[in-house]
Amino acid sequence: MTHQPQRSRPSQRGSALNFRDFVTDLLATGDAIDVREPVSPTLEAGAVTRRTYDTRSPAPLFSALTEGAPGCRILGAPAGLSASPAAPFARLAAHFGLERDTTPSELLEKLISAMKAEPVAPRVVETGPCKENIRTGDDVDLERFPVPLLHEHDGGRYFGTYGFHVVRTPDERWTSWSVSRAMLHGRNTLVGPAMPQQHLGMIHQMWRERGERTPWAMVLGAPPAALAAAGMPLPAEVSEDGYVGALTGSPVEVVRTETNGLYVPANAEIVVEGFISPDETAPEGPMGEYHGYAFAESKPQPVFHVEAVTFRDDPILPICVAGVPPEENHTIWGTMISATSLDLLRSSGLPVSLAWCSYEAATCWLVVSIDIRRLAELHLTERQLSDAVAEVLFTSHTGWLVPKVILVADDIDITDINQVTWALATRHHPTTGQYLYPRAPGIPLVPYLTEEETRTGHGGKSITSCLLPEQFEGRTRGTTASFHNSFPADIRRRVIENWNAYGFPAR
Ligand SMILES: Cc1cc2nc3c(=O)[nH]c(=O)nc-3n(C[C@H](O)[C@H](O)[C@H](O)COP(=O)(O)O)c2cc1C
Ligand SMILES: [Mn+2]
Asked: What is the pLDDT of residue 9?
């Protein structure tokens, strides 16, 4: 990617490409509230944020923190769900500059169309808001930020729970932006996972093989569309920066780091830069995690050295307080996995209508809806269909993240957990409908894996079919007994129109 510096100009605007605008828009629509009450970053901000997920309350912008340099703020629950029945995905949609009432399938189609489009390379600008404050060398002190202790039993304070790492291959052909957590280790060091199957770990390994440090940066308060793309399992060798340009229709404006020649979004709230040590590790964790559990152990992980930090005035540190759904590991990561999985399955010719990581299942299962008319044309058995899905999905970068798959006919709205539950209970045959893939590789963080499976990185993967036998011939025996299916249209219309007249509150 070529980087031609341009003259300094005002930063690009809008909620998708400017985190500050995203926050301002959330405040304006009531989807965030400015918490002016003094709040401690030590557990209190985490507890408030956790409760906003549970109660579907607006995102809290903590603007009077009791620790950290004056002016520093925290935004909790940047992609929590909203209480509004008309717009539960409003905050997620705002990441892409989409309407508040965007539906999951509209969002997935948007994400997929950008995967098919030509990448739009970032535009290098000379400077930007992230350079309003610059600290280098001995002046680097991460503890000046309100680095939160998120859960009581966490192994440390987490600086990076909603930011992305920037690394580039030694030959500069591929820049990776990826979300992975980072714990405070010292005043100028972080520690966190860089799994070898994830692109951060892959590129780190390339530098290690050369015996060199990995030039690295981490971006907090990034353009929301960039953060989402960094949480998206796009294939290896695909630079997320070009994808964000295609997704938003504008090149992301980036500036050169102070110290290591990488490029970072110009209007980011906070940027740390330096290198990942080739061999040094330190204990990291435990932390409350995406599957909803916290385990007791810390693990040795790579150490990230910070040689410079740059930040906006009154910077806002976004946080995800990981745990039971719905938090950003489900709303962002789960949605991005849904998009890449849907694209993969459809492109491979399988009769797939939609794919959805139910937020309620904590990114541990993917529901796939099957177009039963096309299924009938293919003359497959259930075993053949399951094996074909496993072959495509479980060998892919995105499918590595997904331990369980549920197949169901597309009369079910798979984004509605109640319909999925009903289908599982009434359509899945417990003796014949379960297909196991003990040799498939998978993410070792899944809670139910055995020690052996965690160590070898294989097993614990399944496909659960909720397809009924006759659906393989394109038929459905029973019809659904429901408001929609069991009454003629004129009666339904009358009932809806007269709802208030009957004495019920408006819906
Ligand atoms: C809020 C959030 C936190 C995440 N934390 C981690 C993490 O700590 N480690 C990790 O490997 N992936 C984590 N992910 C998932 C990765 O970002 C995701 O798998 C992404 O595809 C990785 O980028 P890559 O495909 O370029 O490797 C997180 C995602 C989100 C949205
Ligand atoms: Mn990647």
From this structure: 57
